[in-house]
Write a structure and sequence with these properties.
heterotrimer, A mainly alpha (about 350), B alpha/beta (about 230), C mainly alpha (about 300), A: about 350 residues, mainly alpha, two-stranded antiparallel sheet, 2 strands, B: about 230 residues, alpha/beta, Rossmann fold, 2 domains, six-stranded mixed beta sheet, four-stranded antiparallel beta sheet, 10 helices, about 25% strand, globular
Chain lengths: ~350, ~230, ~300
């Protein structure tokens, strides 16, 4: 017991150390890229609590990111009663707003299982972009809202990208600790019990409804925070910033990376970054292979690649790449949550 | 030469071995019973024959090696009425019978006539959903479905379970008729040993996945330990 | 506010709604057939349909007329469906829900990307078999195309219904979905039945795609919103009821069209969220849908 705890703390400190030191070795733009990966990592963290732990599938978490994003955009640009709010302060607010939205979704979700829940959340992902178009006065319609470019706080001698990197990963590490703490204790075991057998859990006195709904809320909170950060980094927000496909990528990356492996989550986040933000480069990279000469401007190649990857991984490794790593390296693998 | 020959057949459910080498034969137009306590491996034996469970060891059927998959054994001429009867409860009685005849070509109406002759209640409830039938009627439907296939061998698992004695008598009488008229052999698993021995010509007694006693019905009725353990006197 | 109400326009809206509904019905029926046999929600149904429609487009581009290309495309769709089931779905038949969802999503991504790669993006004109002129039906101008779409879709549905009810193969398909173990015992090759189900579903999707393409312009993302409406229709009718899928489709098509036209608040932007809300409310109140018997929550 003590040994495992020790390993986990060591793993966390190692990660924190890497995070702190990395910018010294990488370029400015790469720091930006890592920051974006960090944002997806935060979302996947929340999603793993929901799917990996309470066993609920959500194909709509891109929408929760968008809720967070819009909260930040509106508060920063329009403000409340004319008072604009500094973008940093909007991050927790965005998380809370998204979290509340998650709770609201989590309540009807109680009545739906597996496939039906996947369907409904998918419907949310598809429908949500329509809402800003309807209330365009409030949301800024299709053009959306423009924010001020992020600048490091007064007095800090570092580039904007490095600041973004530290901000994002700092929040990520904090949220990681929070998740870890939540899942180590009673809530974690309750959620595990729910995932493994709802009937058994319920008959042992676990309040299914509360845990499942709160899991939804928490995962949405995480997505909202990530969405807020993302909007801050891009300095604008409109319905296309978090497209429908992102919700699919999130769940897919989670499944491929392995539901509760820390390394898997980070790898998954990196994968989403490549597909979502660097799609052309995927094509260009593939052109290095002989016999392939694809036009990078032609959309679709990353989708084909990712689709094949998903299918192959799921057929061969139903527990995802993280599961494989765990099996290969056993206790050496950094485990995020202890599985009893 | 027998219709069905099992030679040292083994079967397992995952890590648990249920049959430890069962050897038995069933001849043409014969009604043979398989007796034993709960968990002795009676149901597993039938499953091993029909291919519902994986087996080790060879089974000869009508001179050929018996296939190992349920749809193939069905096509080879074996009809298995499992525990729980395997009725398609959401389909009508008629559709259930039609499915019974799946492996046959044509002759649907004549075969159905014979089934209705044996079990008139099925004709009356022809268009009803099978799940709405009573237990006894469902057993008759299961038998009727098996009859529609005109099998060479009928595997019957606990036909008397949960049924009134009068109904059970009807069913066993139908079995005897089928055996005589259609030249069908029957291998029946029964916990009600008295009943089984009254109709079967031979029987096997299983214990812990092995055959421990075998013989004609008379021989078994005279066997002291069989009488004490299974016949109750 | 909403423009003035006229009976003529109302009838036209109903006609448009029925046409939309016929498309949803076709795709919803495909979803239901797959769900009944494989217990899978095929997220790739729309992309499969789009892909086959592009194939049709290519064939017609090479000089074939629509009605000549039609059966060829159906055959290709059937083969595709059978292959997908055998290669992708059968191996994971007993895996958990997430795995199955990911595989069909992966397939959707793959097909969507493949369509873009092979044919490139951008809208294309798809010349359907029906003329776009309108005829007078009791004083209401209705387009021949709409009538044609409805007739073809419903004819297909009826044919399928007859197939399921009266043929031996149709019975075996139904039985395999209801009780695979008992089906094997009567000699049905359940594996083949599963593949057959996917083949039929792919054909349904192909027809839906070829019917709607003349109306909405052919592009790789053509079927995405339609798929969502098809999900809604299937759930509305009950995920395991083919009749429900068809009724659900038409009902949904008409309802959404009327809501979009006559409820100003919804307009055309909120049609999709409205459909989503409808499914959600329905699932909460009546989990089995209108005709279904499925437990939404397997406890």
């Amino acid at each position: 017991m003590k040994l495992k705890l020790g390993l986990e703390i060591f793993g966390f400190l190692l990660l924190a150390a890497i995070v702190a030191v990395l910018p010294r070795f990488i370029g400015d733009f790469t720091a930006y890229e890592f920051a974006i990966v960090g944002m997806y990592f935060i979302t996947l963290l929340g999603l793993s609590i929901l799917t990996g732990y309470s066993g609920q599938i959500s194909l709509g978490h891109g929408a929760f990111m968008a809720v967070g994003g819009y909260t930040t955009a509106i508060l920063t640009v329009d403000g409340i009663y004319g008072h604009q709010i500094r973008s940093l302060w909007t991050i927790p607010i965005a998380g809370v707003v998204a979290g509340v939205a998650g709770l609201l979704v989590g309540i009807p979700a109680l009545r739906l299982s597996g496939l039906y829940l996947a369907l409904i959340t998918f419907g949310i992902a598809v429908s949500f972009p329509q809402l800003p178009k309807k209330w365009d006065h409030f949301f800024g319609g299709t053009t959306g809202k423009l924010l001020n470019i992020l600048k490091p706080p007064f007095g800090l001698d570092t580039t904007a990208n490095n600041w973004l990197y530290y901000l994002t990963w700092g929040i990520a590490l904090v949220l990681l600790v929070v998740a870890w703490a939540l899942l180590r204790g009673k809530p974690g075991r309750a959620l595990q019990a729910i995932r493994d057998s709802e009937i058994a859990a319920a008959s042992s006195g676990v309040n299914l409804a509360t845990y499942k709904t709160v899991a939804f809320g928490i995962s949405a909170f995480y997505a909202g925070v990530a969405g807020s950060l993302y909007v801050i980094s891009r300095a604008y927000m409109n319905p296309d910033v978090f497209p429908i496909i992102l919700s699919v990528y999130l769940v897919a990356a989670l499944a491929v990376g392995g539901l509760d492996s820390l390394v898997g989550l980070i790898a998954g986040a990196a994968l989403i970054y490549v597909l979502q933000n660097r799609a052309d480069d995927v094509t260009r990279w593939l052109n290095h292979l002989p016999a392939l000469d694809l036009d990078p401007k032609r959309p679709g190649v990353p989708s084909v690649v990712f689709g094949v990857v998903l299918i192959v991984v799921m057929l061969i490794l139903p527990t995802g790449a993280g599961g494989l790593l765990r099996r290969l390296f056993g206790p050496l693998t950094r485990r995020l949550y202890s599985r009893s | 030469m027998s219709l069905l020959e099992l030679n040292d057949v083994e079967a397992r459910y995952g890590a648990v071995k249920a049959l430890h080498g069962v050897t038995l034969q069933v001849g043409e137009s014969e009604l043979v019973a398989v007796l034993g306590a709960n968990g002795a491996g009676k149901t597993t034996t039938l499953r091993a024959i029909s291919g519902t469970v994986r087996r080790a060891g060879d089974i000869a059927f009508a001179g050929k090696k018996l296939p190992r998959r349920p749809d193939r054994t069905a096509r080879a001429g074996i009809a298995h009425v499992p525990e729980g009867r395997g009725t398609f409860s959401e389909l009508s009685v008629w559709d259930n019978l039609r499915l019974g005849a799946y492996t046959r070509r044509g002759g649907l109406k004549e075969d159905a006539q014979q089934v209705f002759e044996f079990f008139p209640v099925l004709e009356r409830r022809c268009n009803q959903q099978a799940g709405t039938l009573s237990g006894g009627e469902q057993q008759m439907l299961a038998l009727g479905r098996a009859m529609m296939a005109r099998p060479k061998l009928l595997l019957l698992d606990e036909p008397s379970l949960g049924l009134a004695p009068l109904l059970v008598k009807e069913i066993f009488e139908a079995l005897e008729r089928m055996k005589g008229e259609n030249g069908m052999s029957v291998l029946v698993v029964e916990q009600n040993a008295n009943l089984a021995l009254a109709h079967a010509s031979r029987a096997y007694v299983l214990e812990v996945g092995r055959v421990v006693v075998t013989g004609t019905s008379d021989e078994l009725r005279r066997n002291e330990s069989v009488r004490k353990s299974y016949l109750g006197y | 506010m909403v423009a003035a109400f006229t009976w003529t326009e109302f009838a036209q809206q109903i006609a448009a709604g029925v046409r939309e509904g016929a498309i949803y019905a076709g795709l919803a029926l495909a979803l239901v057939i797959i769900y009944r046999s494989s217990r899978v929600i095929n997220f790739a149904q729309g992309e499969m349909a789009t892909f086959t429609t592009f194939v049709a487009w290519s064939l017609m581009n090479h000089g074939l007329s629509f009605w000549v290309a039609f059966p060829i495309v159906l055959a290709i769709a059937f083969a595709g469906g059978v292959t997908i089931e055998t290669v992708l779905i059968r191996p994971i038949a007993n895996a958990n829900v997430l795995t199955i969802v990911i595989v069909t999503l992966g397939l959707a991504l793959l097909l969507n990307g493949l369509t873009s790669v092979i044919w490139g993006g951008g809208n294309r004109q798809f010349h359907g078999p029906f003329s776009t002129r309108t005829i007078d039906v009791g004083g209401v101008p209705i387009s021949v195309q709409d009538i044609g779409i409805v007739v073809v879709s419903l004819a297909l549905v009826v044919l399928l219904g007859l197939f399921f009810r009266f043929t031996k193969l149709g019975l075996a398909l139904r039985a395999s979905a209801l009780n695979p173990d008992s089906s094997r015992l009567v000699g049905v090759r359940v594996g083949w039945m599963l593949a057959l189900g996917w083949g039929i579903a792919a054909v349904l999707g192909a027809v839906a795609g070829m019917m709607i393409a003349p109306v909405v312009f052919l592009d790789p993302n053509m079927m995405q919103t339609i798929l969502l409406y098809a999900f809604a229709a299937a759930v509305l009718g009950g995920l395991d009821s083919p009749v429900g899928a068809v009724v659900g489709g038409i009902l949904l098509g008409v309802t959404i069209t009327l809501l979009g036209r006559y409820v100003g608040f919804i307009g055309s932007t909120l049609k999709l969220p409205a459909a989503l809300l409808l499914i959600l409310l329905l699932l909460l109140v009546r989990p089995g849908g209108l005709f279904g018997r499925v437990a939404v929550k397997r406890v």
